[in-house]
Structure prediction request, 527 residues.
Amino acid sequence: MTDPQRRGGLRQAHTGRKVTGIVALTVALVMTMSGCVTAFFPDTKPGAVSTSTPSAEDVAENLREFYGQNVVWSNCERSFECATVAAPMDWENPEDGEIELALIRQQAPGDAIGSLFVNPGGPGASGYDFVRDSVDYATDSRLQERFDIVGFDPRGVGRSTPVTCLDAEEMDEYLYGLATSERGSEAWIDELEASAKEYGDACAANTGESLEFTDTVSAARDLDLMRAVLGDDKLYYLGYSYGTFLGATYAELYPKKAGRLVLDGAIDPSTSNFEVNLTQAKGFESALRAYLEDCLGSSECPFSGTVDDAMATIGALLTSVDASPIKNTDGRMLGANSLLTAIIYPLYSPESGWPLLSEMFADVMSGSAEYAFSFADAYNGRNEDGTYSDNSTEAFSAYNCRDYTYNDDPAKMAEEAAALAEAAPTIGPFFGYGDIGCANWPYPDGAERKKITAEGAPPILVVGTTNDPATPYVWAEALADQLESGVLVTYEGEGHTGYNKGSECVNSVVDDYLISGEVPTEDPKCS
Prediction:
């Protein structure tokens, strides 16, 4: 899916990052920028172990050893329990090898309804870390009372047989390095293609065979395996952003195994890569205008005049650093792509992000790159010492390159770039040419996008926020309409995703549905 370009200059592609699933990054913004911390859980008795007995499943003979495995949980990280599950590397050929899936859970204090699997999005975000570090952000107290909250790293992510591509220094060059040629020129495209091929080749060499099978359909089949070996007859699931695509894919594959699924910050599974870019460009442009409307009424705002005046100033700023990058204190150069990442990152969380965005703009307009790099680094998972905290960049690439098809025909890309610039005049000019990265992937035969109906599944809740910049509201409408049993829940507000973000209405609808199966008779239109 799309989000800030994964590349400061050489990695131009604006095709997805954790946009369609950047809930985990939203958590990082809230926690690091506003001082929010997860609740403290007292340690349990060291060495305590529990075992999950798998549910009885009618599966093919070559899958029985996987579905029949006992999951052993060990105490870890305060009151949490951790475990691993073995899954086929290639679901079509289970005998060809296996991968390891990492899980973490917080058990309900009493008799649980079952396991509630939580996915924060991405693709590439760690559900393990999401639950461990911010379980109270992922779920509220009502759900924690009734469910074992389970976080997991999908295949290729974090602790689950991870995709591995570059070392930290190489990743810096890939994400922040600047192309030497003029944006959009033939020489510039050649630079991006060379960088993309080098990156993809490194991913193949350092990851191995499992890279080919890092895709959402395989991850959905892993999810069914995890459901079964934890002893649940049906899947209870809360997926944010990209996690809605994973959940919808599960429902399509296993409609009779779908229990209660909440898809928050929905993706339209039928959209092409270009349509994703186009819709997200409009979404971020709209969110930026909303920020400016709020900012211009404050004495701390670094802009003046009308919203249109301020948008023009931001466009000129992006063009300026594209032509003349600003040197940071660590030697890195701030180009347009990294600045755009820094702009987009705070838009996910208006309450905490917008004031910081004003400070960042003021800093860049004074000629400093420090604040902008702090945002871009937080988004990219780069630590202060130059190391990277996770493999979300690599996993993001792996999933997106297998989940979509791509075309790197220069004429077609130029046509699409022009459409992006017309649709979103301020940031659209920096969204184009995103197909280059995945068109040069070692396994370029990506999946064709199509509607998901999940025929025969029980009611599925789809939550959409009206001015969500990363997963625009029209996607939630589309997914709810496609699903045979889709039920739309509208949150009239700003920011990415709606559950557990301050709306009692959204929380009540979601909790009632997951706990008791209560489905709203009509869209509650929450605020």
